[in-house]
Structure formats: structure tokens, C-alpha cells
Amino acid sequence: MAKTSILVAGAGGRMGRAIVAEILKTPGATLAGGFERPDGPDIGKDIGVLAGLDAIGLAVEDAAEKGLTRAGALIDFTAPKVTISNARAASEKGVAHVIGTTGFSDEEESQIADLAKSIPIVKSGNMSVGVNVLTALVEAGAKALSDDYDIEIFEAHHRAKVDAPSGTALMLGAAAARGRGVDLNQVSSGVDDTRAGKRKQGDIGFSVMRGGGIVGEHQVAFTGMQEVITLSHSAIDRGLFAKGAVAAAQWVMGKPAGLYTMRDVLGLG
What we know:
10 helices
């Protein structure tokens, strides 16, 4: 089997370093390189050393285009505007794109969908195998239970995380809405002051915590008048996200153009 040559966006960041380390230890995968923004402090540094490993002779570059000529897939956990730019560059080079970035606007989501008409893109709010299994369980639970059960999604992340609710929480909310056959945008009670007062039946609520170095905590509670059913997932090491992203990059190689999710990668439907 031919090796999957993978390029890493944001190679100097926390997720970038974890992804580099995962690629280097994954059979069938090879590192095509990594890049940062042109004024980034890690430009020119050895990618292996940045990842806490031995030097590998590959330096961090200052543009996606340089590494895309060597890559079959690009893994991207950066920021929405950067990811859109990277997706355009990948589309021009015919390179598959794995997107773990969250916090996109509706317009940016539309742009990604358009770019997926020319290249295969795997996009997920969470690359963890466990979280994607949790998503399937949430959808099944919401389908089985009536709207007499209030649904609340709680998420906690490190203090530096910008978007809220997290992409994973929104993914879980969308799964619950699918299970009930409703549009999440119509039943989400949000996370702001509009939640004051009596809870509306059928609403899907979100609770958010930010603090310290929490990697990721997610809980979905189905709360009835006589019982509470709770499904949860705890991330211990962000390496699990890197592992899922590398698996997605290996899976998406050779797939037709289109927008895929981790549920496709894992065969969850």
C-alpha cells in the first residue's frame, strides 16, 4: 500500500506538534512537511524538534503552497480564515483536506462546501473516535426519548479556547436535533442570558466552562421528571485528536470530491 504523504498546517502549535508526532509513528503515513504563518516564530525550525522528537531534516515553511506539491493530504487545526485560505490552496493543487478547525461562520461553511466540489474534504468538530461514537449514541437516544426529556450539552475546555460552544458540543447538539427530527437552529437555547426564565419544552441547551488546561470534557444529559440519562466523554490527551486526524487523512486519499465527516471515516453512517 502506498504511503499517505501528509502536510501539517500550524506545525508549531499544540495540535500541529501532536499531529507531526502521530504521523511519524503511524504505519503507512509519511510527513510531507509543515507550515506556519509567514511571520511565525517557528519558521525554519526543524519540525521533528518542535514536536519534541529528534531532528528529521524538514524545516517549517511559511506557506501552504510549498508543501502541497509534496503532499497527498493536508491536516488543518488552525483558525477559520486560515483554514479557508488553506482549503483554496489545497483545491488548486488537488490535495485532500482534513479540517479539525472549529468556529466557522455560515458563510465560511458555505465556502468549504463549495471547495469540496473539487477535492475530498473531511471536516469534523472532533476527530476522536470516542466522541464520534458518542455522537451516534446521542442521536439514537434523542430518537428514542420524547421531548419530555430536556437535553443539555455541557462542555469544558482550556482557558485559551476561543469559540463557544465548542465545535464538538455543536456536533452533539446537531446529533440530538437529528434524532428528534428538528433543526438545531430552531431549538437551541444558546448559552447567553436568553436562558433566564422557564425552560421551553423541546429546547436543546448548552453550558460552557473555560479554565486551566482542560483538554476537553463533554456531557449530554437527557433529563426527565423521573430519571436522568447522561452520556459523556473525557479527553485525557490531545494526541487522540491527532490520531483520528491522521486516520482521516489516510482514509480520504483517493476518495471522490465531496464533504465527509469522521462518521464516514469510522463507518458510522
